[in-house]
Amino acid sequence: MTGGYGIENLPLGAFAEPSGAPGGIAVRFEDDCVALRPLAAAGLLDDAGLPRSVLEADNLDPLLAAGRAAGAALREAVADLLHDGRADRARRPIGSVGLLLPFTVGDYVDFFASLEHATNVGRLFRPDGEALPAAWRHLPIAYHGRAGTVVVSGTPVRRPAGFRPGDGAPAFGPSRALDFELELGVVAGGPATAVGEPLGIDDVAERIFGVVLVNDWSARDIQRFEYVPLGPFLGKSFATSISAWVVGLDALDRARVAPVTQDPPPAPHLRPADPWALDLDLEVLLDGERISAGNARGLYWTFPQQLAHAASNGAAIRPGDLFASGTVSGAERGSEGCLLELTHNGAEPLVLAGGAERSFLADGDRVTLRARTADGTVALGDVTGMVVQNEREGAPGALSQDD
Amino acid sequence: MTGGYGIENLPLGAFAEPSGAPGGIAVRFEDDCVALRPLAAAGLLDDAGLPRSVLEADNLDPLLAAGRAAGAALREAVADLLHDGRADRARRPIGSVGLLLPFTVGDYVDFFASLEHATNVGRLFRPDGEALPAAWRHLPIAYHGRAGTVVVSGTPVRRPAGFRPGDGAPAFGPSRALDFELELGVVAGGPATAVGEPLGIDDVAERIFGVVLVNDWSARDIQRFEYVPLGPFLGKSFATSISAWVVGLDALDRARVAPVTQDPPPAPHLRPADPWALDLDLEVLLDGERISAGNARGLYWTFPQQLAHAASNGAAIRPGDLFASGTVSGAERGSEGCLLELTHNGAEPLVLAGGAERSFLADGDRVTLRARTADGTVALGDVTGMVVQNEREGAPGALSQDD
Question: How far apart are CA A181 and CA A360, in angstroms?
Answer without folding.
Answer: 12
